[in-house]
Amino acid sequence: MTSTTPPPVPALSPTAAGPAGAPPAVEVPAVEVRGVDQVFPVAGGGQTVALSGIDLTVAPGEFVSLIGPSGCGKSTLLRVVGDLLTPTRGEVRVFGQEAGEARRAQTYGIAFQQAGLLEWRTVAGNIELPLQVHGVKKKERRERARELLELVGLADFAGHWPAQLSGGMQQRVAIARALAERPRLLLLDEPFGALDEMTRERMQAELARIRHETGTTVILVTHSIPEAVFLSDRVAVMSPRPGRITQLIEVDLPGRLGPPGESGDAPSTDDAPSADDVREQAAFFAAVTAVREALRAGGPT
Ligand SMILES: Nc1ncnc2c1ncn2[C@@H]1O[C@H](COP(=O)(O)OP(=O)(O)OP(=O)(O)O)[C@@H](O)[C@H]1O
């Protein structure tokens, strides 16, 4: 006899629960990329198909890395998300807005491999620049720059000139500047690519902490498998050109710092395992292997 017991009603997740009687509130993704192609014309005729049929959804507060062989379109995809490039086909929405609207609403913070600091402005002056451009009053700018310098561990360097800082310190200033307007989405293109290995690992730990403290959604372009695994909730593996996302690999490292309030077994920044401990976990090596195999399966790197 067939059971007539109704299936259990699934518990509503906090994001799906609306007020009594109201339809459930659906969480708006931080980023939605649908069917994006990017084609560049080539001088003398012809074209380069940089991206083909890209679909990607990033949840609020999530950290996603883009990894793939050189020239596969990682930076192009980041630029499309950041409205620095209009896709040939397809659609991008950022926190429910069309990408151009999101840019005008100052949703983005962007940092690239070169820190790109203005040599004639002090460290604090560089961080204040986007605020100044948008008319924020001097006192408020000073206060925000002070907070950000604290956040990136450069509280004593406000009055220094960029040329007086190491590469790693300059990159921290660039990240502080990208965070100045409290963006909901941080786009990072190889921000640690020019740094030596030790500095790079330290910066990765800093970025994990900054993300944990600010709750910012992050998309990172990187060539480094361990970097992607250390930082990301998911790693998007891309094929050689034309770039497609061939696999999305979830990374779950016990106790690692995650978004605010979701730090796994780690109750606070102080009690979280050290970055070195995270990098020595079996789960870390397993995720590195999974990404490496996905890259190999996608074609030559
Ligand atoms: N503005 C442009 N005009 C023409 N072609 C471009 C342009 N930007 C990128 N491309 C081409 O698109 C392809 C993807 O470039 P992109 O820089 O996105 O790759 P990538 O994966 O970030 O590379 P890398 O890892 O080497 O930095 C490359 O073939 C590149 O030459």
Automatic annotation (TrEMBL):
What's in the keyword line of the UniProt record? ATP-binding, Nucleotide-binding, Transport
Q: Does the keyword Cytoplasm apply?
A: no
Give the domain of life: Bacteria
Q: From the Swiss-Prot or TrEMBL record, what is one GO molecular function term?
A: ATP binding
Is Nucleotide-binding given among the entry's keywords?
A: yes
Q: Which Gene3D superfamilies match?
A: P-loop containing nucleotide triphosphate hydrolases (3.40.50.300)
Instruction: Cite the record's Pro residues compositional bias ranges.
Output: 1-11
One Pfam family hit: ABC_tran
The ABC transporter domain, residue ranges? 33-265
InterPro entries (alphabetical): AAA+_ATPase, ABC_transporter-like_ATP-bd, ABC_transporter-like_CS, ABC_transporter_ATP-bind, P-loop_NTPase
Disordered, as annotated region: 1-24, 253-279
Instruction: Give the protein name, as stated in the record.
Output: ABC transporter ATP-binding protein
- Origin species, per record, is Frankia nepalensis
